[in-house]
Amino acid sequence: MMNAKQSDRLATVVIYTLVGVVIATLVFLLGYILFQGVPHISWRFLTTASSNMTAGGGIRDQLFNSLYLLVLTTIISVPIALGAGIYLSEYAPHNAVTSFVRSAIEVLSSLPSIVVGLFGYLVFALKFNLGFSVLTGAIALTVFNLPILTRNIEESLEDVPNLQREAGLSLGLSRWRTTTKIVLPTAIPGILTGIILSAGRVFGEAAALIYTAGQSNINVSYTDWNPFNASSFLNPMRPAETLAVHIWQLNTEGVTPDAKAISAGASAVLIIVILLVNLGARGLGGLVYRRLTGKQAKGAA
């Protein structure tokens, strides 16, 4: 029989071993993708339109479409999730109705992305006659990310100590001002984490976008950014093949001679952009947190 110190030492070794396995797996995957793809990345690769038949194509349009969908989905989903999270955390009574709503959110968060894509295709693309478009893809991704984002915001608000709410109410503040001036700024780091995770899912999602945003793409020049032009990059009603969908298409039905090289380079760009978005969002969140609360956020740069 082991004594308490031996058991603690063994448990510590096991925990560190498992953590090391996870970190090593992550480093291996990221290193392999970057090692295979970075040599194919160049300015021409990033600024050249893709080619379906000839070699030498780039990922300009797909990269822009991914960023465009990320921004549009965030604009749609964050206010809705923020309002729902505030209501569930600060205003909703504890009864059967709110329990059912939370259960429904848990069920929706576990839906496969392909199911959300088919739902978006049947409802938004066909029923509402939006067709394959950026807007259809953004709405489908909103349905895909909204449950997780709402749950994350609710938990971030609930993690704020009740003493801060009581202090605000004792000073004569209304519940709304207490929530917006005290509780919400304190919960910004957790809320930002949820937004970052949802942004990563949006940028790397492929299955849901195949049936909503489409697999075709309209190649236009950077000078043709008139939002009223049917072929403009800024037109939300045009079809848009994203970077993740482009990678999937290259590996399944790509006929270009350098399909593997383009796929490897696009995968590396996808990883790099997600890392940059995460770091940038954390830095921005830390700045906003310091401005609102006057102190350093935990884990902020």
TrEMBL record:
Regions that span the bilayer: 12-35, 67-88, 100-124, 130-149, 182-203, 261-281
Molecular functions (GO terms): phosphate transmembrane transporter activity
GO CC list: plasma membrane
A Gene Ontology biological process term: phosphate ion transmembrane transport
The ABC transmembrane type-1 domain, residue ranges: 63-281
Compartments it resides in: Cell membrane
Source organism, top-level taxon: Bacteria
Membrane topology note: Multi-pass membrane protein
Keyword terms: Cell membrane, Membrane, Transmembrane, Transmembrane helix, Transport
Family assignment from sequence similarity: Belongs to the binding-protein-dependent transport system permease family. CysTW subfamily.
The protein, known as: Phosphate transport system permease protein PstA
Organism this protein belongs to: Lacticaseibacillus pantheris DSM 15945 = JCM 12539 = NBRC 106106
